[in-house]
Amino acid sequence: MGFPVVIPAIGSQAVLGAYAKLKRDPVKYECPANYIPEVDVVIPAFGAAKRIPYALASLADQTYSNIGKITIVDDGSPDRTSDAAKLFGEELGLDLEIIRRERSQGKTPSIKQIARRGNSDKLFVLDEDTILAPNYIERVRVPHYNEKVASSFGIVRPLTRKKKLHSTDRRSSHSLCDCRVPAPRMKNLCLTSLMLRWDLKRV
Known about the structure:
By secondary structure, the chain is of the alpha/beta class. It contains seven helices and six strands.
């Protein structure tokens, strides 16, 4: 008589991440301080009027000094995603390009559209519902000094409402609270915030 196999109810990405850690020791990357490639940012967004202010606030608070063009692709949102992005972008001093589609085409086409026309060294894909640590881009660019690295990314973990507001205290918490923007729902655990190498952006 066989015994039942119990499979924990956790995401496949978490399983793969755990397997990778058990399989081998993580590779440690280093780069010189003067390695500062220009990084363009694309934010695919759909129905994100209540979430995108947090993403923009964390982007404005980055310590990395060579962030280039920031493009938001509003993929036919039924709400005021474009208006919210423009309002908070202006308050945060971000030079945003907002592309508004009449109907949704999906996240991947949004990324490809920007990637194929960009001229920066790197392309950083930021999810609309992601709050970055202040040194995120500075850290995620380090592996790219190695020519064999094609992409790098981090992990998003859930935050409490208090921590979400605290993450924007230095730049925009006043506006967020005044406008009564509810805290966004964050993904439980997923790979996100991807940086791509220049010669792979146009695939």
